[in-house]
Amino acid sequence: MSNLFTDPSGLSRYGWTETLDHAFTEHRESGLVPARIVRVDRGLCDAVTEAGPVRAGLTALYSPDPLLAPCTGDWAALRPGDAPELVALLPRHSAIVRSSASRTSHGQVLAANIDTVVVTVAMTAPLDAARLERLLAIAWDSGARPLIVLTKADLATDAFELEALAPGVDILATSAATGQNIDVLTALLSGTTVLLGSSGAGKSSLGNALLGDELLATGQVRAHDGKGRHTTVRRELVPLPGGGVLIDTPGLRGISLYDATDGLEQVFAEIERLAQDCRFGDCGHDTEPGCAVQAALQAGELTERRLASYRKLQRENVWAAARTDARLRGERTNRQKAITSHLRATYKFREQQS
């Protein structure tokens, strides 16, 4: 790990700001030091402090809710010593969240405190429009700025037209092999950047091009479908030569939404605008009279695929929110039952003593 941190002169190159410094005052008065999590690995983590890299424990931060678990990109308060331990997380200003891979009602944080989400799309594989829309919904909902980067432009045989799928998102074609537009991409990035995409989309190769060194593992992809193996096995934060940091992530196979209402509104902005002109406020955009969405469909201004994707993701998002509400109601009920049981035991004990 030491080769990633050759300049441990301070935390500013990792994103430390005056705002964070002010928020850390109380922790500092308790003898704690600020640290940023580089990677999490089985109850321990690699973090970077003003003094350099450190391996720290996470026992004090255990939570049964994955949303509250420490992850790559988090800023934390570290208790130094012979057995360093992270004891508190600072509030996140942004986070990429998806439904837990375990298919529970919990969310899972993929990266925290990010400023730009680079969604990678390989130009050598067939475009999966629905998957791109799903990734963009998660990216927009994180609170960071999404950016679509087309990779492997030197090997592409067909042009990609993505503007209709990604309103308000900049799109840049690149090639890690030839260096095409890598300088342009570097100029667009600031703060903390995270790479998202499928296995084989060229995330790690793109990351290495930005880093100017082969620090991230890369692998081959299958010729017939453009898919690759997981060469990145865990999320990892690496400083960029020109400032800022980069978070590489494993290729995402399952991408389930977790309360991504704001993100969906951004991804399907044209449908949201059309819906405002519908005659009825609760229009289902199906057979209702005066439906502006259906009118746009009939006029060829909106495609059936786009509307079907919108409906599917909206249903999924509502379902995820309902599961979360049910879990929270169950947790409140269990807590209330525990309190009631404790009170009954207390009263019974008092009666026995009197």
From TrEMBL:
Residues reported in the UniProt entry to bind Zn(2+): C278, C283, H285, C291
Gene Ontology process terms (BP): ribosomal small subunit biogenesis
Record-annotated CP-type G domain positions: 102-255
Gene Ontology molecular function, alphabetical: GTP binding; GTPase activity; metal ion binding; rRNA binding
InterPro entries in UniProt: G_CP_dom (IPR030378), P-loop_NTPase (IPR027417), Ribosome_biogen_GTPase_RsgA (IPR004881), RsgA_GTPase_dom (IPR010914)
Functional description taken from the UniProt entry: One of several proteins that assist in the late maturation steps of the functional core of the 30S ribosomal subunit. Helps release RbfA from mature subunits. May play a role in the assembly of ribosomal proteins into the subunit. Circularly permuted GTPase that catalyzes slow GTP hydrolysis, GTPase activity is stimulated by the 30S ribosomal subunit.
Protein name: Small ribosomal subunit biogenesis GTPase RsgA
Lineage start: Bacteria, Bacillati, Actinomycetota, Actinomycetes, Streptosporangiales
